[in-house]
Amino acid sequence: MKKAQIVIGLGFGDEGKGITTDFLAQQNPESVVIRFSGGQQAAHTVMIEDKKHIHSSFASGALRGLPSYFTEHCTIHPVFLLNERKELIEKNGNIELHIHPLAKVTTPFDVWQNRTNAKNLEHGTCGKGVGATMKRHESPYKLFAADLIAPREMLIEKLKGIAYYYGFMDDDQLEETLHIFLNAVDQIDWKIDDYTYLNSFENLIFEGSQGILLDMDHGVFPNVTYANTTSKNAYGICRLLKIEDIEMYYVTRIYSTRHGNGWMSNEKELMLKNNEEETCVFNDYQKELRFGDLDYDLLNYALLLDGAYVAATKKNLIVTCLDQTDEQFKTENLKVKFDTVYGSYSPFSKDFKQIF
Fold first, then answer.
1. Which cofactors is this protein said to need (predicted)?
2. Range of weakest confidence among 8-12, 44-48, 92-96
């Protein structure tokens, strides 16, 4: 009987979804890891002994040797993907990546738009073109994963149309940009497969992106992501594949974080320890990583929302970064009943400990 394990962040992202996914990959080495939201803006960090990798264009089972699958709800950028692929090869990770034909393709023109548009910069952006890609797909100027293996002349015309859509009109720069993009496309052995590919696995690990509080339907607009970060997409795929055994892994740090602009409760400066391996540091687009005390009311809110989207047979809670502050996690403040509560005492723990 097929089983699905779904990893969801309960905050604004940066909760520890990568190490939770790696934890499940270690327990279930014959699985496939499925990304069902977001894309190349993810920064899911996994450390195995002396090897460390930040997963963006591959799912967080890749360093441990599991194949990745990106659904139609995700974005991919061939240049970013190629660069990460080279890194994984050097670390002996698994570069097997299957992509749904309708996954959305980010182009250099989307990245340019994300990084130069004043409104994007005001609201906050990762600078990886994901938001621009999703917005562009509401127009006629679409580009899907299937287009990457279409006749080259057709692909070029679609790319030129996207450049025109954004007003990217410098002919010399256009040709150079197209050359770099197409060169990356040519170096990748594209595996474009629909959901029937997943039928060959008995265990599916669904890896979420960002967190429920950034969901496009439930976050505080306009500082939201252009994606459903709840279990909505993952559960839809489970129903399509007729999977009824669904186990949830909800993830939060022992404190709150938010990267970029927007509302945040309980925000304050925290004195943290053992956080030398923090991945989410300052960048020109998201700015500083912000901190605050854990808000149990928001945790309950996020759990209530996600419960409206998925019917789970078992619910687990993962609490990460327990050794970075003296604060204690208070399970009695949660209204949702969990089967197990796990704790991680390091950003990249190999094993989780029960803290019930």
1. Mg(2+)
2. 44-48
